[in-house]
Amino acid sequence: MSEPQVTSTATLNRLSVYLRCLRELLRHGYETVSSRELADRFHLSSAQIRKDLAQFGDFGIRGVGYQIEPLVARLHSLLGLDQKHPIVIVGMGALGNALAGYIHFNDDSFEVVTGFDSDPAKIGTEQRGIPIKNVALIGSEIADPGATIAVLTVPAASAATCYDALVAAGVRAILNFAPVPLPDRETVRLKNVDLRTYLEETSFLLRKLPDSEES
Q1: Are 176 and 159 in contact, with CB atoms under 8 Å apart?
Q2: Beta bridge partners of 176
Q3: CA-to-CA distance for 104 and 20, rounded, in angstroms?
Q4: Are 53 and 60 spatial neighbours (Cβ–Cβ below 8 Å)?
């Protein structure tokens, strides 16, 4: 079965969750799992699992379930994790430094290779073993590490300028943590991640909970 031409973000997010869950099962020595077992163990929907996976091939075996190792390999490939993705972080403040040390930004598929900042005290130094370069030199310095993904963690006032520089430098995908949404461009995949928005959403949901009662 051929892959669907358009895969929703929600489906991709679920595939990523399935992959993590299946890897966990592999680590514990499992070789096969049914959609029901997978759903029950990780609090997922068995019907959704079957629907999502059926878009990409016939993985299940009647009476057996899914063979975990080949399914992990298939999802790994589908998500583009079978190749190395060099990452640059623009803005090496508290958040940028924390992300640089985040284990899943430095595994078999991803590697933070360079940081950029405007602070003269940081330029020319290293943080977590990552060289920090002048943000004004993105255009000329980004080709050396060959970065395909950029993580933007700069203040709102600097976000648009840095975004333009990254797009012009040929970066293919940008994860934007700056507290301002950026416009889509045809040549780059952009994901705006506004942590404040998620906090405010959580605050709203808390209002919907019944007040706790003291026993």
Answers
A1: yes
A2: 152, 192
A3: 12
A4: yes
For the segment 30-84, what is each residue's pLDDT rounded down to a tens digit? 999 999 999 999 999 999 999 999 888 878 777 778 999 999 999 999 999 998 8
User: What is the pLDDT at residue 4?
Assistant: 44
Alpha-carbon span 130 to 90, nearest angstrom: 12
Beta bridge partner(s), residue 112: 87
**Which segments within the chain are labelled E, that is strand?**
32-33, 60-61, 65-67, 85-90, 110-117, 126-127, 130-134, 149-152, 173-176, 189-192
Is the pTM higher than 0.70? The answer reads yes
Distance of alpha carbon 146 from alpha carbon 113, whole angstroms: 9
Taking only the tens place, the pLDDT of each residue in 122-160 is 999 999 889 999 999 998 888 766 788 999 999 999 999
Q: How many whole angstroms separate alpha carbon 28 and alpha carbon 33?
A: 12
Residue with tokens 């929703």: 8
Contact 90, 159 (CB under 8 A): no
